[in-house]
UniProtKB/TrEMBL annotation:
Keywords for the protein's UniProt record, in alphabetical order: Acyltransferase, Transferase
Organism: Rufibacter roseus
One Pfam family recorded for the sequence: Acyl_transf_1
Domain Malonyl-CoA:ACP transacylase (MAT), chain residue ranges per copy: 5-291
EC number: 2.3.1.39
Reactions listed under catalytic activity: holo-[ACP] + malonyl-CoA = malonyl-[ACP] + CoA
NCBIfam families per record: fabD (TIGR00128)
Originating gene: fabD
Keyword Endoplasmic reticulum: no
Top-level taxon: Bacteria
Gene3D superfamilies xrefs: Malonyl-CoA ACP transacylase, ACP-binding, Malonyl-Coenzyme A Acyl Carrier Protein, domain 2
Annotated SMART domains: PKS_AT (SM00827)
Phylogenetic lineage: Bacteria, Pseudomonadati, Bacteroidota, Cytophagia, Cytophagales
Similarity comment: family membership: Belongs to the fabD family.
Protein name in the entry: Malonyl CoA-acyl carrier protein transacylase
InterPro entries to which the protein is assigned, alphabetical: Ac_transferase_dom_sf, Acyl_transferase_dom, Acyl_Trfase/lysoPLipase, Mal-CoA-ACP_Trans/PKS_FabD, Malonyl_CoA-ACP_transAc, Malonyl_CoA-ACP_transAc_FabD, Malonyl_transacylase_ACP-bd
Length: 291
């Protein structure tokens, strides 16, 4: 079975999507529609901007979303039997799977980016990558720290990202190193994504998500919050609301897709990050880039 997977924040690069725009009329039309919806020419930043411009919150998330969704739209043999997206990538997966309309999802992604940025400004916070510890040990240490710090991204075995207050993350990193972590590295991110500190952003996004039409998809979507397959529009909607404050269970999602028959994971979007993670989760899994 063929599973399509969609990347999240961090996979952006200057020049992304330019080839799609120049080679496909459908892509050009979708990019121009996105420029109109967003109220600025995101294509100018994507195709020929600077790294700094591309890192702006209002640009990064819509840019990755657009690249992923448009790449899927012009792919010749796009025929998913299951889909999943890493954090932001879940929105791309839902469009490719016909659950969300392109325009609706782009508006949600833009609102999500701005709401997350606002939450970060309200309360300085951060994230850190923990390498070489069991998930259970990371969870245990986080629970022992008094300040807010939680497991946020289960990327692959031995690679987990924690999220929380600056003090909480720094203390947790020291404890992780003492417990034998190979690395405990604070990440250059804007804030504590996928943690309770995103509650204000979740509340802001909830209203918009509830006002958006969700349809039954063409195949199951394996969602971040529980790593389980979903086809019911109401369930998908509820899980998407919870996503901002809940951890990204990527390891468990990939394992569940394999258990349910996935034999090939096709990454759709910029970069090859997810292909690498899939291989670390199961070295026998076959991966490729969308063509």
């Amino acid at each position: 079975m063929k599973a399509y997977v969609f990347p999240g924040q961090g996979s952006q690069f200057v020049g992304m999507g330019k080839d799609l725009y120049e080679q496909h009329q459908t892509a050009k039309e979708l990019f121009e529609k996105a420029n109109d919806i967003l109220g600025f020419r995101i294509t100018d930043v994507m195709f020929s901007g600077t790294d700094e411009e591309l890192k702006q919150t209002k640009v990064t998330q819509p840019a990755i979303f657009l690249h992923s969704v448009i790449q899927a739209a012009v792919a010749q043999d796009f025929a998913p039997e299951m889909v999943a997206g890493h954090s932001l990538g879940e929105f791309s997966a839902l469009v490719a799977n016909k659950v969300l309309a392109f325009e609706d999802a782009l508006r949600l992604v833009s609102k999500r980016a701005l709401a997350m940025q606002k939450a970060c400004e309200e309360q300085p916070s951060t994230m850190a990558a923990i390498l070489g510890l069991e998930d259970e040990k990371v969870e245990q240490i986080c629970a022992e720290v008094e300040d807010v710090v939680v497991a946020a991204n289960y990327n692959c075995p031995g690679q987990l990202v924690i999220s929380g207050s600056i003090k909480g993350v720094e203390e947790a990193c020291e404890r992780m190193k003492a417990a034998g972590a190979k690395r405990a590295l604070v990440l250059p991110v804007g804030g504590a994504f996928h943690s309770p500190l995103m509650k204000s952003a979740e509340a802001e996004l909830e209203e918009a998500i509830k006002a958006t039409e969700f349809k039954e998809g063409i195949c199951p979507v394996y969602q971040n919050v529980d790593a389980k397959p979903h086809t019911d529009p109401k369930e998908i909607q509820e899980n998407l609301i919870r996503q901002l404050t809940a951890p990204v269970r990527w390891t468990q999602s990939v394992q569940q897709m394999i258990a349910d028959g996935a034999t090939l994971f096709v990454e759709c979007g910029p970069g090859k990050v997810l292909q690498g993670l899939v291989k670390k989760i199961d070295k026998n899994a076959e991966t490729s880039q969308v063509g």
